[in-house]
Amino acid sequence: MDLQAQIIQYLAAGLTLGSIYAMVGLGFTIIYNATGIINLAQGEFVMFGGLIMVFLTTTLGLPMFASFFITLALTTGIGMLYERLFIRHPSKKAPLMTLLIITVAVSIFFRGIAMFIWGKDPYSLPHFSSPKPILIGGAAILPQVLWILGLSLLAVILMNLFFNRTITGKAMSACAVNRMAASLVGIDPFRMVMLSFALSATLGALAGASITPIALMEYDRGPMLALKGFCAAVLGGLGYGSGAVVAGFLLGLVESFTTGFISSALKEATALIILILVLFIKPSGIFGSEEVGKIKKI
Amino acid sequence: MGKSNYLKLLVAAALVAVIPLIVSGDYHLSILVFVGINCMVVVGLSLLMGYAGQISLGHAAFFGIGAYSTGILTTHFGFSIYAAFGCGLLFSALVAVIIGIPALRLKGHYLAIATLGIGEIIYILFNEMVELTGGPSGLSNIPAFHIGGYPFGHSLQYYYLVWGVLMVILWFSLNLIHSRVGRALRAMHGSEVAANAMGINLSFYKIQIFVLSALYASVAGSIYAHFVSFIAPNNFALMNSIMFLVMGVVGGIHNIWGAVLGAVLMTFLPEYLRVFKEFDILMYGAILLAILLFMPEGFLEGIPMMWRKYVKRGEA
């Protein structure tokens, strides 16, 4: 394979990884903005997205299109239930530290449930369309990669429209800026918090359902994804949605090119080394301004 | 430290001395050794979280630095155990200072993120530096601990070693929080601005406490390596760092005794969940959630609170 084809190949791999990190990072940001909580169970949404999709298509034999939307709906439901059962009541009095540990507990609990239902084996899923690679400039690219990129871009655009163009989205942003003031103008902060968990779960499910055909999915995939997504969220300036998306894509690209040109052993470390460097050089994140990027509280 | 804490420490020491007479069998004693080891780490975390108001998501890395330092230096380079212990402490302190100085100068919880990153990087190093660490398959044949050429062969000896060291750590920590440093830390926890105005050098104290908690973790790691004689990177991953935090929160992070209680409870829990075989992770998650939901302040404050509620209900 010549250099150009290699570069295209790594570019495609990097963008695929990156779009998953971007989805998870954006999910982190949405919940963080609404509550100040860093939701360490974010990766489990992705896991549920993948495994529920497997259950619907392979076990129940539903058509791809229908099961994709059912997966999104079910995972969103899980996200809302999670908020209602485990976050709403404690968030009224417990310190944020405890809430952070609650999200850890939820993540362990979710993994337990997934293992109870699906066991420890990784599952595969048929591709959304033909599994035959398309040749672009000498590189072989799976149509699924295009699906992943397309769906995540669509999700980012929809999120952007939602937060900037709809009343509910603006109400959520208002809640993030000042909860007290938002409730004074008639916004129910609890509804907004639940909505933030719902949106985050939808994003996770979207990522999970779309990568499973090429990356497989098993019950304990969550923590690693959460770690990478968290890196993306911090690099983008925690609390700054588009920053998280761009940082997610950058991380994916950097990882893919280090694997390709330097060493695969370094792959996992690159994201973290970048994270540490950015923290020490520009703590507000690559894209965060001083004001938005200020880490409010944990 | 106050009179009541001396009393508690004495009671704890007495309990530690008596327990081996009641508990028999290597299995239970070895769990108690692990409890003691976890206690050391969690006491350090409790100082950091409960008193300095900072979170570390990478304490398993310091635990690992202690373990791998003594492990590598004694097996590959023929260091004596004490010299290796010292080197472990030195390395941990060095890493803690390197992350602590930039992260703790900033306001907010940058330490949590920085420790998360460094913790994972160190975990990857344990995996990749195969010639020194043995890589993912681990480092084995770490010699047993010995005092004056008399090697430890029994869990009972380790039990006394670990809990003896822990008692010293507890004594030191309790003294520390009732000293000038402790008062400064509590003032800081109350209000950083006010503390600063009183002339307390915030980042200096935070770095001190962070290094101290790293040293505790390193001691625990070194003893752990000699006790189990085999270490692998998986013992020092992010999940382990989080487990230490969980122990602290379950016990109650605002109190050193809470840290001890949390470590005891959360080390025993997985052992008893073994009966559920593959579903232990589900049970563990569910129990942890239940504890956190019903006692968000931790056991140490939560139980008396529940008791008071119960008594009140009885009267009404």
What can you see in these coordinates?
The complex is a heterodimer of chains A (298) and B (316). By secondary structure, chain A is mainly α. Chain A has a single domain (3-293), classed as ABC transporter involved in vitamin B12 uptake, BtuC. Chain A is 75% helix and 2% strand. A two-stranded antiparallel sheet of chain A has the order 1-2. In chain A, a hairpin with a 2-residue loop joins strand 1 and strand 2. Chain A is globular and about 60 Å long. In chain A, 53% of the residues are buried. Chain B has a domain at 39-237. Chain B has helices at 3-22, 26-51, 59-76, 81-105, 110-128, 130-133, 155-177, 180-190, 192-197, 202-228, 238-251, 256-272, 280-294, 299-315, and strands at 146-147, 150-151. The radius of gyration of chain B is 20 Å and the shape is globular. The relative contact order of chain B is 0.17. The mean pLDDT of chain B is 86. The interface between A and B is large, with 44 and 40 residues.
